[in-house]
Amino acid sequence: MPRMLDVSDAVRAEIGDEEADRLLAGETAPGSYDCTSCRAPGDVEQEPTSTVLFVGEDTAVLAFAHAACLPSQVVKVTEEQLRGAVRSITADAAAQGGVPPQDAPAAQPVAPQHPVPPQTAVPQAAAPQAAPQPGAQPPVPEQAVLGVTSGLVLISGELHPALVVEPTAPVVRPGTTGPGDEFLTLLVEQGFQPVSDLDAVPPVLHGWSVLLAGGQLHAVLMPHPGGGQPVAWWQAHQPLTVSDGWRTAAGKHQQVVVCAAPVGSIGRQPREDLLRAAMDKAAAEGRLVAATLPLAGTGS
C-alpha cells in the first residue's frame, strides 16, 4: 500500500476527495512509475512521490514524479500539449517495461472539475514586407514565431540548463503594427532583466515557469493576465527533446535560465560553445534579457 504519495490540495480539488483517497489507499496508484520530470524509475512504496495533474480543455491526465523533482501540483496545458505529454509518457513507459502503451503505468486519465482558462495569443511581429503596389491592400503583419534552443551554460563554474529565445521577425506591441521591435521592452515589462554578461545566475522571475513533462520540453508558462492558473507564453508544437545532461541539470537546480534576444542576435548555433559565444556577444551589445524560471509548479 503506497504510504509515500503526496496529493496536494490543488490536485484533490480537481480530482475530488473520493479519487484522492483511492490514490492514497493504493487502489489506483501504481507501485512503480517513470518520473514525469526526470524519466528515471520511481517506487511509490519506497520513495516520496508526487501526483502531478495535467489539465487540458476537456480532459486531464494524472502522472507521478519523484518528490525531489516536482511537488504535487496542477499544471494547466492545452489539449494538444496534453496529448503530446500522454504520448511521450506512455511510449517511454511501454518501451522500458515491455508492455502495450495502454497498459503502461505512467499516466492515467481523470475527469477535471474546473474549466481551463484560455491561452494567451502570440504577439504580432512586424515582419519585413515588400513595398505595396498602388491600389493593393496593406500587408497583414505576420505572427511572431519564437525559436527556442536548449543548451547548458557555464555560470560561476557550474552548468545550468538554459533556453535561448529568439523571434523570427521584429516583435511589436500587441494591437500595433510597428515599425520597430519591442521584444525586449515587452519582456522587461514582464520582469526579465537586461544583462551585460552571464557571470551570475539571473534573478528568479516569480509567476513564470518552464513545463518539462515526460522528460521533454512542452512550454514556458507566464502568469494569467486576469489571475489564476498560468498560461503558455511559448508552447512547442511537438514536445522538444532535451539532452540527458540538460534534464539532469534541470532536476538538480529545479530551475532554468531563460535568455531572450531580438531577431538576428543569436541565430541557430550547432554547438553549445558557439551558442554561448553568441549569447555573450548579444549581452555585450545590450541585446539580451534573462531570468531564471522554476520548473512548472514549484511555487517559487
Automatic annotation (TrEMBL):
Composition bias, Low complexity: 94-111, 121-134
Region listing for Disordered, in residue ranges: 94-142
Superkingdom of the organism of origin: Bacteria
UniProt name for this protein: Uncharacterized protein
Lineage, top ranks: Bacteria, Bacillati, Actinomycetota, Actinomycetes, Kitasatosporales
